Amino acid sequence: MAEIVFVHGIGQRQRGPATLGEPWRLALADGLWKAGHTDLADRVGRSPGSPGALGARMAYYADLFDRPDGQGAAPVDLAGLPPAQAAAAVELAEVWLRRAALAAASKRDRAVARAELADLSGAGGERQGMGNAARGALAALARLRWFAPFGMAVAHRFVLRALAEVVRYLGEPGMRERVQERVAAAVDDDTRVFIGHSLGSVVAFEAACRRAGPLPLLVTLGSPLGLRRIVYDRLVPQPPVYPEAVRRWVNVAADDDIVAAVPDLTGLFPRRAPAAGSGPRIDAPGSDNAPGLETVAGLETVAGLETVAGLVNVAGLVNVAVDNGSAPHEALHYLTSRQVGGPVGDALVAG
Known about the structure:
The protein is of the alpha/beta class. The protein has helices at residues 17-34, 38-45, 83-103, 107-121, 130-142, 152-171, 175-186, 199-210, 331-335, 338-350, and strands at 4-7, 56-59, 193-197, 215-221, 246-254, 271-272, 295-296, 299-300, 307-308, 311-312, 317-322.
């Protein structure tokens, strides 16, 4: 049984489902405890298979980015990517730089990011060619302490792999299906909660869209889902909508998490309009599906009944801010927060 399914993010090739899943499970137990769900915290924290334990399983896919000959990680030089993927990677790097210039916790990082962005544009305002832009954007990110706590050489490799994994999942033929097969293999009839971090939030969202049965809760942590051209416009299905199987969606982002460059997803994932004659789904005020709380494409909601291109804006997505301290994108810091433990506990109690 797997009541909870985790979906990891970028840069996890050196781990596996057990070594990655165990710390996530224990971190979530702490988050449940902080939120007052002490019994559930105890059950999630128990060894898998022990009496009374709640199942938590990691949907692991990082090895799918390895070379097919089994000789380790695929080359991370962006020059080895197809042109469209390389261009997307450069654009993503620049988005992260712009986010760092505005929101990085370190004053030094903000100043470095602003200077690097100015350099990338060139003194005369002309953008560099693709090769120079790629090298410049990667080097600029690697100079940020946010990416380089252990030195620039490590940061450069991490940034390369992070960018490559994002664009390969979204653009490499067959990659999305192989990753989604891993998630499907981790899910069973008892699954009530999906928790996805970083790129894993994109994977978890798309898995939720494919789910046939009900899913009480989707949690996205440090998510890049709101990046319009790079991620949002490449999601499946298009246009992106609120996953029909999901009762509640909680999107959690630290203010200084550079990867979550658009931390507020409000209005980006409206629900599909109900079938003709079935009537709109309207729940009691204050419930998860109470209408009238959001906007769609800049249009004001009136009692939650407007439709835009066949979509109806009925609330179900909640955006939550957290403080992750010195590691704003760290998955374990997200999981240990009461802001994550609270809704997970509520979903598990509701059954």
